[in-house]
Design a protein that fits this description.
single chain; Arc Repressor Mutant, subunit A; Rossmann fold; 2 domains; eight-stranded mixed beta sheet; two-stranded antiparallel sheet; 12 strands; 42% helix; elongated
């Protein structure tokens, strides 16, 4: 299977993979060659035995939080220390084979002799690793929001603005960030590819204005907003047939004179010369390659859109640019 096809897949395409199936794919890759089905079963059973907590001893601890107690009790109820049944394991193998993740090698009588990985196996594990790496690089999002905002406030001299727009150039918004931005502005506008926000019955969207794009124009008039925030800027966007420069020019149009834009993206990062660490860094880099910019690239985009007095700084691995509209 070509890499180009894998790149088109999203995490939603893997949502029915269970943990045992993921571990099976991983162990097949580690084995490195076709393996007898029962041997694979034994390998995975032994692997999981060594990766389980001692429930009895742990439950005696007085320092457990309520959520930890619930989790351990549920494990105990499920007979945590028992082996995987062969029927359950073989059923998982059948599911993986149907999806193309593994290949059955049969003998002359049609009996499964060995199992091996397919080209999709490694790419799947790699994709899942990229996804989880990308979602855990900033573990404390609220703390990061506050720290990067403090840097922006220090550089602009502004604690709050009258009006701002938060723009996600995709069919996704961060309700956490919208809630946070409402503390920094009297009026908050949101722009994204979401067509109907009525389905999102969340308090974070209360008193928020939802903008639209019509014929490559943002609905808001010229010189209206003090600030536009782009929380995750990307190189390739699928946003109403507009290029990233075209949308930046639209942001420039609706910003008031002396108003500004904040654009956040991933910063470039060096390798370590450690083979294992660099392999992980390369996998991570692949997963975020569409949102990695150099300072020159980011500066060039904002200049092309008309912004002046551009300031770019690196905050904990996130490249952040401030660009102003001249008065």
């Amino acid at each position: 299977m070509s890499v180009s096809i894998i790149e088109k897949l999203g995490i939603g395409d893997f949502m029915d993979l269970n943990m045992l199936e993921i571990i099976t794919l991983d162990q097949l890759l580690r084995f490195g060659k076709p393996v007898v089905r029962h041997s694979l079963y034994v390998i995975i059973n032994e692997y999981l035995k060594n990766k389980k907590i001692n429930i009895t001893d742990t439950l005696l601890s007085n320092n457990l939080r309520n959520c930890e107690k619930k989790f351990l009790k549920e494990l105990k109820n499920k007979n945590h220390n028992s082996n995987i049944s062969t029927s359950s394991f073989y059923n998982n193998l059948n599911n993986l084979e149907k999806k193309g993740f593994i290949k059955f090698n049969e003998d002359e009588k049609g009996k499964i002799e060995t199992i091996e990985a397919t080209p999709l196996t490694k790419n799947t594990i790699r994709f899942l690793l990229q996804f989880f790496m990308d979602t855990t690089v900033i573990p404390d999002y609220p703390k990061f929001d506050k720290s990067i905002t403090a840097q922006i406030q220090k550089r602009t001299g502004l604690e709050k603005v009258e009006s701002l727009m938060a723009a996600w150039l995709e069919k996704h918004v961060s309700f956490r960030l919208i809630s946070f931005l409402k503390q920094l502005s009297s009026e908050v506008f949101v722009l994204s590819k979401i067509e109907n926000y009525d389905e999102y019955a969340v308090k974070e969207l209360e008193n928020v204005h939802f903008s639209k794009i019509f014929k490559n124009l943002i609905r808001e008039p010229d010189n209206m907003l003090d600030l536009v925030v782009v929380p995750l800027y990307k190189k390739k966007i699928d946003f109403f047939d507009m290029s990233r420069i075209e949308i930046l020019k639209e942001f420039y149009r609706i910003i008031v004179p002396n108003g500004f834009i904040v654009v956040v993206c991933k910063a470039e990062f060096p390798l370590t010369q450690d083979r294992a660490a660099d392999e992980l860094l390369n996998i991570y880099r692949e997963s975020i390659s569409n949102s990695i910019f150099s300072k020159d690239e980011l500066n060039g985009d904002l200049k092309n859109a008309g912004f002046k007095n551009i300031e770019i700084f690196n905050h904990k691995g996130m490249l952040t640019a401030l660009g102003y509209k001249e008065g």
